[in-house]
Write a structure and sequence with these properties.
Layout lengths: L2 E4 L1 H6 L10 E2 L2 E5 L6 H7 L7 E2 L1 H13 L3 E9 L2 E8 L2 E8 L6 H10 L10 H17 L6 E9 L3 E9 L5 E8 L6 H5 L11 H4 L6 H16 L7 E9 L5 E9 L5 E9 L5 H5 L12 H16 L7 E9 L4 E9 L5 E8 L6 H5 L12 H13 L3 E7 L9 E10 L3 E9 L5 E9 L8 E8 L3 E10 L8 E12 L9 E14 L4 E15 L6 H10 L2 E14 L10 E11 L7 E14 L3 E14 L21 E2 L19 E12 L9 E13 L11 E12 L2 E10 L8 E2 L1 E8 L1
Parallel strand pairs: 3-6, 7-9, 10-12, 13-15, 16-18
Antiparallel strand pairs: 1-5, 2-4, 5-6, 8-9, 11-12, 14-15, 17-18, 19-20, 19-36, 20-21, 21-22, 22-23, 23-24, 24-25, 25-26, 26-27, 27-28, 28-29, 29-31, 30-35, 31-32, 32-33, 33-34, 34-36
Length: 759
């Protein structure tokens, strides 16, 4: 049979008459040389089919099309009569990807990155793709500070036209920042400027923060921080001239040099408003935070324009444009500002979109929204919506965006984006006492059961002093109006013989139901009703007061309890509060028919104030008092106690207050006062990392009994340091306190910690 080879690529590129052939009509097409590729795949890429007339141009086009698939290393066309024979040689397939020498990355993470650039097992082998893979691996390592990384690739042919690819990685040492120099800074000390930056030289905590490893993104953020530092202190003409980043020849040390021009310090001479103000000028002028005669501060000017923009946003003008134009008087070193106001068009919200909630139901988020669909845009309500969603405690991040609706001029959408976090908590508490005793406690809570927003908690304690089994459940939206409902059931066995308090034993069981009613955006009223039955056991070692109570009242106590409370929560966050306040008042009233009739009132007030340098002042005050009525006696097991990590640190838990004159056991009391002041700040060496905070605190408090006159002179004080760390395994809290005015009878507990594991 006469065969004629079509010189494919040559014929496609050169139209030489010597390579031409006579056109013919294709009667059949046959594919030879394929092993993995289906014949149908080849036919699908061929630009000719049976019945077409084959000529030089179509032959060249066919060869180009098959080469373009990337499946074949060689392609030829042959003619057998009127049969077109396609002869191919397939590229090998990648059988395996292996890595040797990995420490900084997991193999599966690198494979995922290579898959995104087209290199993966079972795909067609391409030498150019392997070179790209090497560059991608180096990029990954460079992003982690491994500037000395070396990657060697070995391609091994395997049977059945396959190859194995092996990447041998020599990671080298991580390059660390050796020195940061700021050239041109004369007004402030270089050390003071470096403290503002996240990037820093190696320190005692950089093993955790990784801030001694160079990052282009972190450096960009630090440069903007320096600019803000100067401009907030009057240096309106401050300029970052240049930045150089160099690495030592051994690729172990990185040097950063920042060149700046400080310029002159300016004061503000005047601030005027111009444009379409819409609202009274006097009202908008009150929103201007920077006043004539003050040193210029970009932060204050930004706050001023933002406040005006937000005020207009509350009226529906979502795209209000407020800009401050400066006029410099370089001789007097003064600057005058004209704030131009352009409110734009009034808009309304078309739709609210919720994304990122893979577990939490949409309705749980939507019921916290104060901005309604189809209503006029209200910036204040949108901000309140974000705060309420964040305050749920279910999310690490909550962001609200208001993009304009395409094709309209008066509509926006509200996009709520959340990043969920584990909402289950396993809490373990421990304390070391001066007598070398270790106390433990534990509880399990799930704040968002099945994404419904409902809370459930289980407490289990089997220590020598307490055996507690309790179950609690809360539905924060029992009704659509936000009325909450909850219940609690428990059994509790107590034996205080091993504790510092007066010795007694009790066996209690009970339960109750409670409701919460919102009376404002941040205000709630709570009411509840519960029942408790307690059996007491007193022995010869019990304080005389306990023995007298049992002799008069009996060893069985029944309590029908009504509770009423109020709380107002204005904190900006539950996890890392930086501003706002929290107030709570609770009244407990035992009803007629109870063994003992009494009333207990407690009040708590927390206040958080942000301070410069990301510091926060946290204040807490608590007061409690209990009184009997109806000629009844206050049960001693309803007394207040204080001391320990929840009240006055430095003293052993529940050891403050009146004591038995014979046994010296702690009795508790009917009056309680506790105060705490704590300065929270980022941990030195961690930059501005919010996951770790150091605290310096002063605690005060005590307990008074019915025979003790209330006197502030009886207060116990302590001072110390605390550390909170939102670690990968859960929140950790440590405190070390030194009692200031301890008395001989006081029992101390200087070191305490609390550990929580999330799931």
């Amino acid at each position: 049979m006469n065969k004629k080879l079509l010189a494919g690529l040559v014929a496609a590129l050169l139209s030489q008459s010597g390579l031409a052939f006579d056109a013919f009509q294709i009667k059949d097409i046959r594919v030879e040389g394929i092993q993995r590729t289906e014949a149908g795949t080849v036919f699908s890429y061929l630009p000719v089919k049976v019945g077409d007339t084959m000529d030089d141009e179509k032959a060249a086009t066919a060869i180009k099309a098959l080469f373009a698939t990337g499946f074949f290393k060689d392609v030829r066309l042959e003619i057998e009569g009127q049969v077109l024979v396609v002869v191919v040689e397939e590229r090998p397939a990648i059988a395996s990807l292996e890595f040797v020498g990995l420490k900084a990355f997991k193999p599966e993470d690198l494979k995922k990155g290579l898959r995104e650039i087209g290199l993966a097992e079972s795909r067609i082998f391409d030498r150019a793709m392997v070179e790209r893979a090497e560059q991608e691996l180096k990029r990954q390592y460079l992003s982690q500070g491994h500037y000395a990384v070396e990657v060697t690739t070995t391609v091994t042919p395997l049977e059945r036209n396959r190859v194995g690819i092996n990447f041998t990685v020599n990671e080298g040492e991580i390059a660390k920042i050796k020195q940061i120099n700021i050239i041109g800074a004369n007004t402030f000390k270089e050390s003071e400027l470096l403290d503002q930056m996240v990037l820093r030289t190696s320190g005692w905590l950089t093993w955790y923060t990784k801030n001694d490893q160079y990052s282009k993104q972190k450096l960009a953020g630090d440069l903007e921080t320096l600019r803000s530092w100067y401009m907030n202190r009057g240096y309106l003409e401050f300029n970052l001239d240049s930045t150089q980043v160099s690495i030592s020849p051994d690729k172990h040390d990185i040097y950063i040099t920042i060149n700046v021009t400080e310029g002159e310090k300016y004061t503000v001479s005047s601030v005027k408003l111009a444009g379409n103000l819409l609202l009274p000028e006097a009202e908008l002028q009150k929103l201007v935070r920077i006043k004539p005669g003050e040193i210029f501060s970009r932060e204050k000017m930004t706050e001023s324009t933002k406040a005006i923009s937000e005020r207009l946003g509350n009226e529906g003008y979502a795209f209000a444009n407020v800009n401050a134009a400066p006029e410099l008087d370089k001789e007097k070193r003064q600057v005058a500002f004209t704030v131009f106001v352009d409110p734009g068009r009034r808009v309304y919200v078309r739709r609210i979109n919720v994304t990122g909630n893979t577990k939490t139901r949409d309705e749980v988020i939507r019921r916290e929204m104060r901005q309604m669909e189809t209503a006029w845009y209200d910036g204040e309500k949108i901000n309140k919506s974000r705060t309420r969603v964040d305050r749920l405690g279910y999310f690490d991040e909550v962001t609200l965006e208001t993009p304009a609706v395409a094709g309209t001029t008066d509509q926006v959408d509200v996009d709520v984006k959340v990043k969920e976090k584990p909402t289950g908590t396993l809490m373990l508490g421990a304390g070391f006492s001066s007598s070398e005793k270790l106390t433990l406690s534990g509880s399990v809570q799930q704040q968002n059961v099945f994404g419904s927003g409902k809370h459930i908690g289980v407490q289990v304690s089997t220590s020598k002093s307490n055996q507690i089994y309790s179950l609690s459940h809360t539905d924060p939206y029992f009704t659509v109006d936000g009325i909450s409902q909850g219940f609690d059931v428990y059994t509790r066995k107590t034996n205080t013989s091993t504790l510092a308090v007066g010795s007694f034993a009790s066996d209690a069981a009970g339960g109750g139901v409670r409701y919460g009613l919102p009376i404002g955006e941040d205000d709630y009223v709570n009411v509840g009703f519960s029942f408790d039955r307690t059996r007491l056991k007193i022995d010869a070692n019990s304080p005389q007061r306990y023995q007298d109570y049992v002799n008069r009242v009996g060893d069985k106590s029944t309590t029908w309890l009504a509770t009423a409370g109020w709380q107002k929560d204005e904190r900006d966050s539950l996890l890392f509060t930086t501003k706002g306040s929290y107030r709570r008042a609770v009244l407990e009233l035992s009803l007629p028919g109870s063994t003992s009739t009494y009333a207990r009132v407690t009040y708590q007030h927390q206040y958080f104030r942000p301070l410069p340098r990301k510091m926060t002042l946290a204040l807490n005050g608590e007061f409690g008092v209990a009184k009997t009525y109806g000629n009844k006696e206050l049960p001693f097991f309803k007394n207040f106690y204080a001391g320990g990590i929840g009240s006055v640190r430095g003293y052993e838990s529940n050891t403050l207050g009146p004591r038995d004159p014979v046994t010296n056991d702690v009795l508790g009391g009917d009056k309680r006062l506790v105060g705490n002041a704590e300065l929270l700040l980022p941990l030195p060496g961690s930059g501005l990392d919010k996951s770790m905070r150091l605290g310096a605190f002063v605690d005060a408090g005590n307990i008074w009994g019915d025979n003790n006159k209330f006197s502030l002179g009886d207060m116990r004080y302590s001072a110390g340091l605390s550390l909170s760390w939102n670690s990968p395994v859960g929140p950790l809290k440590f405190s070390f306190a030194q009692p200031i005015n301890k008395k001989p009878e006081d029992k101390l507990q200087r070191l305490q910690f609390q550990f929580g594991s999330v799931f």
